[in-house]
Write a structure and sequence with these properties.
Layout: H1 3-9, H2 26-52, H3 64-88, H4 103-106, H5 110-127, H6 132-139, H7 141-154, H8 160-175, H9 190-217, H10 223-253, H11 261-283, H12 286-307, H13 314-338
Helix pairs in contact: 1-9, 2-6, 2-11, 2-12, 3-10, 3-11, 5-9, 5-10, 6-9, 6-12, 7-8, 7-9, 8-13
Length: about 350
């Protein structure tokens, strides 16, 4: 379940991948459709659930750090259950290889745990300033941050087409920031939301790069066990932060202080997001995840229009097109390579 590093670094495209329907793989195709549909639904639901939990002034009744801890704990339980099945199905003589990680080696997961904690908290802070329709548009700036950070930290080069795609992606995000004639609703600030989500993408991408390096050094270990270690450190880090920031309230009111039905919906949505990613990366591929992101961007926009009084302007529609096209351009060659598409046969 390489969702930690794949969330920011994996290929994105608007082309629907998948196996051809035949009698031999009809069952696998059904599984493919079910997982893809669930991924699209959950990813569309994520910003809508967070937006539905906001107060009119953009704040939340629940503690953001507490929410991060509970989400991490939920994913830890899931990974622990999956790892137990993996452990039991492994040859007893090789089981120790699945979890042969010393304490000193495990400390390498502390840095990404801190960065992921910051990233997950910034999601809630950023969403307090923007509409869910803008969440995916601004969130796609992770491609920009990933491209730059991978170039700086790992020397990974981008083609001229990819750099052009990054410029278009930036333009698409800037297009939907407030204009002079805009009248933002109470508590909304699109520009501030964009800045916060860019910081979120920087933290998330940096942690993904660091996690990727750790995973490559410990490839013989179970990915589920490594995720358990990462989640444990994440819980510890956020508990320490909670102790220094809001310990009196939590100790007096309890960890579920301020939680209402909408808060538990956010918890379910965030946890389901992590679980759905694990199934995507296990049974399908990373391009499917990106395809679900692209579709969910449009679905969230439609629901925001009907339920969150979002003004669907021509500028926003153009921004959706620009972001979608730039995403395709950035990962075009990877898609062609994966599906053996010749340039001469490509429409674009």
């Amino acid at each position: 379940m390489k969702k930690r590093m794949d969330d920011d670094t994996e290929e994105k495209t608007i082309i629907l991948p998948g196996p051809k329907i035949t009698k031999e793989n009809e069952v696998s195709f059904i599984k493919y459709c079910i997982i893809l549909s669930l991924a699209i639904g959950i990813k569309s639901w994520q910003p809508l659930a967070i937006a539905g939990s906001k107060r009119p002034d953009g704040t939340y009744s629940w503690n953001k750090t507490t929410m991060v801890i509970l989400v991490e704990f939920s994913k830890l339980v899931f990974c622990a259950i999956v790892f137990s099945f993996q452990y039991m199905s492994t040859d007893p003589r090789k089981r120790h290889l699945l979890h042969n990680l010393s304490f000193n080696q495990s400390l390498h997961f502390l840095i990404p745990a801190v960065l992921y904690g910051a990233s997950n908290t910034l999601v809630y802070i950023g969403m307090s300033y923007i509409n869910p329709a803008l969440f995916h548009v601004f969130g796609n700036t992770r491609i920009l941050t990933a491209g730059i950070l991978y170039r700086i930290m790992m020397g990974r080069k981008q083609s001229d087409l990819q750099w052009l795609a990054l410029l278009l992606l930036t333009a698409g995000a800037i297009m939907v920031t407030p204009l002079s004639e805009s009248t933002p609703k109470e508590g909304e600030d699109n520009f501030l939301g964009l800045i916060i989500l860019i910081l979120m993408c920087l933290c998330s991408t940096s942690s993904s790069i660091y996690t990727e390096i750790n995973y490559k050094k410990t490839q013989e270990l179970s990915i589920f066990y490594q995720n358990c270690v990462l989640y444990v450190y994440g819980i510890i880090v956020n508990l320490i932060w909670l102790l220094f920031t809001d310990s009196q309230t939590v100790s007096g009111q309890g960890i579920f202080y301020g939680f209402d039905r909408s808060a538990f919906i956010v918890l379910l949505a965030q946890s389901s997001m992590g679980v759905s990613l694990s199934f995507i990366f296990k049974y399908l591929d990373n391009i499917v995840y990106v395809f679900s992101l692209t579709i969910s961007m449009f679905i969230s926009a439609v629901f925001s229009y009907f339920f969150f009084e979002f003004e669907f302007t021509l500028i926003f529609a153009c921004a959706l097109v620009v972001v979608t096209v730039s995403t395709y351009m950035y990962y075009r060659n990877k898609v062609f390579e994966k599906y053996s598409i010749q340039d001469k046969d490509a429409f674009f």
